[in-house]
TrEMBL record, chain A:
GO terms for molecular function: metal ion binding; metalloendopeptidase activity. The keyword Metal-binding applies. It comes from Trichechus manatus latirostris. The keyword Metal-binding applies. Its EC number is 3.4.24.-. Transmembrane segments: none annotated. Belongs to the peptidase M76 family. The lineage of its organism: Eukaryota, Metazoa, Chordata, Craniata, Vertebrata. GO terms for biological process: mitochondrial protein processing; mitochondrial proton-transporting ATP synthase complex assembly. Keywords: Hydrolase, Metal-binding, Metalloprotease, Protease. Residues 1-20 are annotated as: Disordered. One of its GO terms (cellular component) is mitochondrion. Signal peptide: none annotated. This is Mitochondrial inner membrane protease ATP23.
Automatic annotation (TrEMBL), chain B:
One of its GO terms (cellular component) is synaptic cleft. It comes from the Eukaryota. PANTHER family: UPF0545 PROTEIN C22ORF39 (PTHR28052). It holds the Pfam family PANTS-like. This is Synaptic plasticity regulator PANTS. It is found in: Synaptic cleft. Belongs to the UPF0545 family.
Amino acid sequence: MAGVPEERGPGPAAGEQLQQQHVSCQVFPERLEEGKPQPGFFSSFFTNNQKCQLMLLKTLETNPYVKLLLDAMKHSGCAVNRERHFSCEDCNGSVSGGFDASSSQIVLCQNNIRNQAHMNRVVTHELIHAFDHCRAHVDWFTNVRHLACSEIRAANLSGDCSLVNEVFRLHFGLKQHHQTCVRDRAILSILAVRNINKEVAQKAVDKVFESCFNDLEPFGRIPHNKTDAKYAHRDFQNRDRYFSNI
Amino acid sequence: MADGGNNWRPPRPCEAYRAEWKLCRSARHLLHHYYVHGERPTCEQWRRDLASCREWEERRSAEAQRSLCESERARVQAAQKHALVWALRRSPPAEWHLPLPQDEKDE
């Protein structure tokens, strides 16, 4: 698997693409190691692993973005089990997490996730990849357009490109800036997990942007805050009534 | 179906139309819509839908039912107008629930 600085993306299948595997060893070293990683000699009261597990639990239980995604995945036949489908690990660089399609697992970088809000966003982002994997034949490893599509969706719907987050990154813009952010972050994500040049990544993003930016499943809207996410969840729970009465 | 007789009811509870209309008109939503689309949102359709919903609740108006169905179908069509990049699955991936390939993952 590989990731992007402050970004995350799906990982290639182990053994299939040696080049990608080499890159992925460097970012997610624990993924291919034998035996469990040992805790540090001087551990704080809570280790990074424990903090990661606690924050993950809180996210899964309380965050409305995540609760909708979990519901939608269950409905699509991919019920999520915390122990099976999530893994808190140390990662190299400043990657926050990744989705490993080959093992159907979301990796959370316990050494890089800063706080609860960050955990919420990372889990939302990776669950969008997992949701895409569950509902569609996404060719993560050999089709750059598929990868681009999922990254566009994840950047668009997870809150990655919220006005506040962009301001913190010192990216100032208002009118339609969201779309610029989504494009840029999708390209960054692709470049981190694929050994291709920027023009190829840009071209793939441009080609699929219109379709994928407007694919808002399972939210039905771009959720800008928890209220939006709650309304989206309410609509999702109401979908039987909705579709049988239009 | 929408034209089916006695069992029809509005696709959303009237309270949901009211909540969406109110959200649409909020300052926060105006800001977010401008940030995403570069223009102001239009909220008139939510107001019309709320009025239709209430009219149907009070008088079982056929016109209100027609108007609501038309509005919601337009929303669904607008959401589906772009062809998908990938093919949808008919069943979930087989390996989703299988145990991890490597045994040393956290137990």
